[in-house]
Specification:
The complex is a heterodimer of chains A (about 110) and B (about 120).
Chain A lengths: L3 E4 L2 E4 L5 E7 L7 E6 L5 E6 L3 E2 L7 E6 L2 E6 L9 E6 L6 E2 L3 E5 L1
Chain B lengths: L2 E5 L2 E3 L5 E8 L7 E7 L5 E7 L6 E3 L7 E6 L4 E6 L8 E9 L2 E5 L3 E5 L2
Parallel strand pairs in B: 2-11
Antiparallel strand pairs in B: 1-3, 3-8, 4-5, 4-9, 5-6, 7-8, 9-10, 9-11
Classes of the chains: A mainly beta (about 110), B mainly beta (about 120).
């Protein structure tokens, strides 16, 4: 199975700050990488697919990049609704696997 | 508007069975693969199973093969997960998701399954 390692596991940040969450795969995944946001009530929202494509309706302050084994999600200027859990997910090979998550917290 | 509504969760004893349902609306159900993803308490997300748009192909993670069965009724726009021989480690919130080429584009709100005596 491909292991997905997210760093950091938690990140205190301030409103308006630019933040980057990293995701490293245990082997190359050819950009087959998605990002999701989970709110405390459990609601899961897809954000980005195939490394850098924004899901319809997702604000442009979200962006994704990467290649090979290393990928990242960047939020250019934090809004109050952005404080949540974030997960990366690879679909290069089965089983599909997720990272362990990054909790974005208010500083 | 796409909606996925799970039901059927609850408390079940180890070794027993439970069947989850997911009612879909707002899209042409029989055009899309569907999946179940679970999340154990305070843990991350874990893909469980996927079924093709027409039900002809199914895929499972190793830990549930032979115990869980994913199925669908396209006439009813409903996805199912039959869970047999349940174990304590199956305790989780189970999410239904529309699955397109490795991407879970829409998710339900989840239903909690607790396996305990």
């Amino acid at each position: 199975d491909i292991q997905m390692t997210q760093t950091p596991s938690s990140m205190p940040a301030s409103l308006g700050e630019r933040v980057t969450i990293s995701c490293r795969a245990s082997q190359g995944i050819s950009n087959y990488l998605n990002w999701y946001q989970q709110k405390p009530d459990g609601t899961i929202k897809p954000l980005i697919y195939y490394t850098s494509n924004l899901q319809s309706g997702v604000p442009s302050r979200f962006s994704g990049s990467g290649s090979g084994t290393d990928y990242s999600l960047t939020i250019s200027s934090l809004e109050p609704e952005d404080f949540a859990m974030y997960y990366c997910q690879q679909y290069d090979s089965s089983p599909l696997t997720f990272g362990s998550g990054t909790k974005l917290e208010i500083k | 508007e796409v909606q996925l509504v799970e039901s059927g969760g609850g408390l079940v004893q180890p070794g027993r069975s439970m069947k989850l349902s997911c009612a879909a609306s707002g899209f042409t159900f029989n055009n899309y693969d569907m999946a179940w993803v679970c999340q154990a308490p305070k843990k991350g997300l874990e893909w469980v199973a996927t079924i093709s748009y027409d039900g002809s192909s199914t895929y499972y993670r190793d830990s549930v093969k032979g115990r869980f069965t994913i199925s669908r009724d396209n006439a009813k726009s409903t996805l199912y997960l039959q869970m047999d021989s349940l174990r304590s480690e199956d305790t989780a919130t189970y999410y239904c998701a529309r699955h397109s080429g490795g991407y879970f584009a829409y998710w339900g709100q989840g239903t909690l399954v607790t396996v305990s005596s």
